[in-house]
Amino acid sequence: MGGGTLDDDVKLALAWFISVILIMLGVVIIAFPPTGGIVLMTSLVAGLVIAGIALLSGRGTWMIAGYNTAFSEERGAFDERELCRGVGRS
């Protein structure tokens, strides 16, 4: 790993982890209808806060659509840290 980017194995592990969490949230919502909505909204807010912190710290380029699929020559035209901070502020 270099330059604050995640390699494919870490991204796959994160995707599996998030999938398991979403399945568990679905079970909680179905099993406990009155509190399920609270758990869901709290989880969504927590996820957005974590994503915002990652972007504001300048380390969330893998979350920016279009940038993460661009060629390295195209990426060279951008300051990654400022790009992340700009997306994190919006």
Give a verbal description of the structure.
It contains 4 helices and no strands. It is an all-alpha fold and 90 residues long. The protein has one domain. The longest helix has 24 residues. The mean pLDDT is 78.
Write the SSE topology.
Blueprint lengths: L7 H24 L1 H24 L15 H4 L4 H10 L1
Average pLDDT, to the nearest integer? 78
Order of helices and strands: HHHH
The class by helix and strand makeup works out as mainly alpha
How much strand content do the residues show?
under 5%
Helix coverage percent: 55-70%
CA-atom Rg in angstroms: 16 Å
**What is the number of independent domains?**
1
What's this, in brief?
This protein is mainly α and 90 residues long.
Write a concise keyword list for the protein shown above.
90 residues, mainly alpha
